[in-house]
Amino acid sequence: SLFAPIMVDQLTDDQIAEFREAFDLFAVNEAGLAGAAAGGARRGVPLCALSVDLHVVDCAARMVMVQEFVNRSGEPLEATYAFPTVASCTISGLKLRIDDRTITGVVKPKHQAKQDYAAATAAGYGACLVEKGGEDLLRVRVGEIQPGARVVVELEGALDVQVDATGALRVVVPTEVASRFGLAGRPTEQSEMAAQAAAAAPVPVTITGSITSSSPITRITSPTHPITTTATSDRAHTFALSCTAPTGDVVFAAAPEAPFLPRCWVQPLGPDAAVASALLFLDSPEMQGLLPVEEDSRRRELVFVVDRSGSMAGRKIQRAVAALQLFLRSLPLGCCFNIVSFGSTHSSLFPQSTPYTEESLSAASSFLETMAADMGGTELLRCLQHVLAPADPAINHQVIVLTDGEVCDPEGCFHLARSSAWKVHTIGVGRCVSQALVLGLAQAGSGYFEFIGDTEDMEPVVVKQLQRALAPPPLALSRVEWVGAEVELASPINPGHRGRAPRQGPASHCAGRQPIPRVGQVLASALLRSPTLELVRFHIKNAAGATAVLEARPVTAPVPIVPSVGRELLLDRQESHTQQCVDLAVRLQLVTRQTALVAVDDRVGEP
């Protein structure tokens, strides 16, 4: 089974309702929209075609997804469907085409958007509602689809592009939703029906795009699916995938010849405002030798936390075990380690972390030879509560979590990692991974994240993650100056004041997420009160407090950056400024957990 065994008594009422709604979206006999006819009877509104277009520039991307459906029943339908997105994707635009009519969506507070949608469909008008069902799941409702009508839903958004352990850009297009959810420790009837429907009604899928880099690109590959590529120049390539119903996440990897240089992009918002995104790459030549490395003389402790729930069965647990064997054979002498397994419960190989010796290595290797995905549910939070005990200042505590991300209460895991002195790194295992958990937990734990697909070479990932865990304390961002601009909002914000407004002046602020919680990157974002910006200065410090400054001059953003800047601003304020987050999301037209996109037929309100 692809499903994560999740125990119902471990979820909140809202989570259970959300998961059940997600399952209901697929309780149809054909792949696509779940339609409700008069009287509540369910009908299939099959997906006819899916296309995704990506325009990638360095570490940012614009995405346009087009999904085409047709109502082949003999009665009007209100249709609902869900589809996955990567965790960093922020939806900012909607166009709904019903036959020859096009309706443009508007982001509103969620309760207002739902009221507008309900009023339109009750009056018999066409309407569409787009809302988040999770960090990596979107739900769409399309009202009053007439018999024989063809419906095209076009969504636009932006996403961050990962830089993997090899230095390559990694673009992920998820294609599966159901494999990330499960209730009561077993697959649901709805999930099995959806899988059968997908096999019976294959869907043509086209994924196209382009990747442009400030550094020459040596190659573009896909470790998951066969693709075609064309080099339009040494710094620009196009790629394409055309198939029927791809399985698992579709991954594209582009290898630049050299690390990226610091950059700052600006996008005007009319005559009186702009957004800015500044990115600094820690592996760039400018960073090498910038500050002396402060060695960490503390004793090292590494705890490997491995997911052994039912969702890890088969290839996933095999890959996790192989990665752990490689980790064990790469550990340095003098460190202590342990292996903690989790599922419905958790257990440790050793009563406490033990010194790395030939005897402990042999015991751990023998233990891994019999490891299986046989521990039932996916209760990571209780496991982390056990592992992340109060830290000893004399020990460098590091945790590496290997999981497919199908866990209960991810927000609880994030909160625990954020409040712990332990460093938490993650590795997503398998062809279909919840990026929301893998990225979110590493960012909350001030660690690094990586992914190991079914066929990808795991050695670079293991080596890189171990190097990071054993490395001296990383450089941190202490302050960002937005020279020549008046800053309305900025991210990150003050140290120790996550979710609160910065105390510094309008052109400078301090970092709120320390140390840098991104793979080899320092990212700063700002909403400016004017479209002009002269310069961005990064103030960097090492563990000893020594500082250095790097600068980047702004250029016009080659792709829309409003969604990604807005996402960063919202992340730093979501815990204590709910209404401010709603107002900001509406202002920037972004879909969040508190807002939704609604498109209503122009005929509404006509006599």
Overview of this structure, please?
- The termini are far apart.
- The chain contains 11 helices and 34 strands.
- Strands 1, 2, 3, 4, 5, 6, 7, 8, 9, 10, 13, 15, 16 and 34 form a 14-stranded mixed beta sheet that branches. Strands 20, 21, 22, 23, 24, 25 and 26 form a 7-stranded mixed beta sheet that branches.
- The model is unreliable at 1-12, 18-32, 177-200 and 494-519 (pLDDT under 50).
- The longest helix is centred in the middle third of the chain and has 14 residues, at 315-328.
- The protein has 607 residues and is of the alpha+beta class.
- A hairpin with a 2-residue loop joins strand 5 and strand 6 (101-104).
- It is globular.
Structure summarized in a few sentences:
With 607 residues, the protein is an alpha+beta fold.
- Cα distance spanning the termini: 54 Å
Number of helices: 11
Which of globular, elongated, flat, extended, rod-shaped describes the shape?
globular
Low-confidence stretches: 1-12, 18-32, 177-200, 494-519
Please outline the major beta sheet: 14 strands, mixed
Structural class of the secondary structure composition?
A: alpha+beta
Calculate the mean pLDDT score and round it: 80
Q: Strand content of the residues, in percent?
A: 35-45%
Strand segment tally: 34
Percent helix among the residues?
10-25%
Instruction: Compute the CA-based radius of gyration.
Output: 24 Å
